[in-house]
Amino acid sequence: MEKVKAKKHLGQHFLKDESIAKDIADTLNLVGYEDVLEIGPGMGVLTKYMLDKPINTYVIEIDEESVTYLDANYPKLKDRIISKDFLRYDINEVFAGKQFAIIGNFPYNISTQIVFKALEYR
């Protein structure tokens, strides 16, 4: 499948620098949780580094084109791709009662809302 084109109306900006993606993935301390939710994985530049770690990686993506790309290119994510809008999704559907980390290269236009939603869940 071809690369996904960024959609301005979704505020998408795809991470392209592999060393930054690896550095972001390496911020996970892996203490007290086994599950990680990546918000807005796009084409999985960050995701691939998380899949190498001893954790259960889940991704949530609003863009159907990106979901199709992830499904085709990351078989390790089978049944762990959530095709929803994070801001409208009930995190308890997957993580009820569990400790988990949130990671991502967040869209600038909703980063504050993402933080508040995460704090609300906490």
* Tally of helical segments: 5
Characterize the biggest β-sheet.
4 strands, parallel
SS-derived structural category = alpha/beta
CATH topology: Rossmann fold
Gross morphology: globular
Topology summary:
Elements: H1 18-25, E1 35-39, H2 47-50, E2 56-60, H3 64-73, E3 81-82, H4 92-95, E4 100-103, H5 111-121
Parallel strand pairs: 1-2, 1-4, 2-3
Can you describe what's shown?
- This is rRNA adenine N(6)-methyltransferase.
- It is an enzyme of class 2 (transferase).
- One of its GO terms (molecular function) is RNA binding.
- Belongs to the class I-like SAM-binding methyltransferase superfamily. rRNA adenine N(6)-methyltransferase family.
- By secondary structure, the protein is of the alpha/beta class.
- It has a single domain (8-121), classed as Rossmann fold, CATH 3.40.50.150.
- It has 5 helices and 4 strands; from the N terminus they run H-E-H-E-H-E-H-E-H.
- It has helices at 18-25, 47-50, 64-73, 92-95, 111-121, and strands spanning 35-39, 56-60, 81-82, 100-103.
- It has a 4-stranded parallel β-sheet.
- Strand 2 (56-60), helix 3 (64-73) and strand 3 form a beta-alpha-beta unit.
- The longest helix is centred in the last third of the chain and has 11 residues, at 111-121.
- It is globular and about 40 Å long.
- The relative contact order is 0.22.
- The mean pLDDT is 87.
Labels describing this entry:
5 helices, Rossmann fold
Short note summarizing the structure:
30% of the residues lie in helices and 13% in strands.
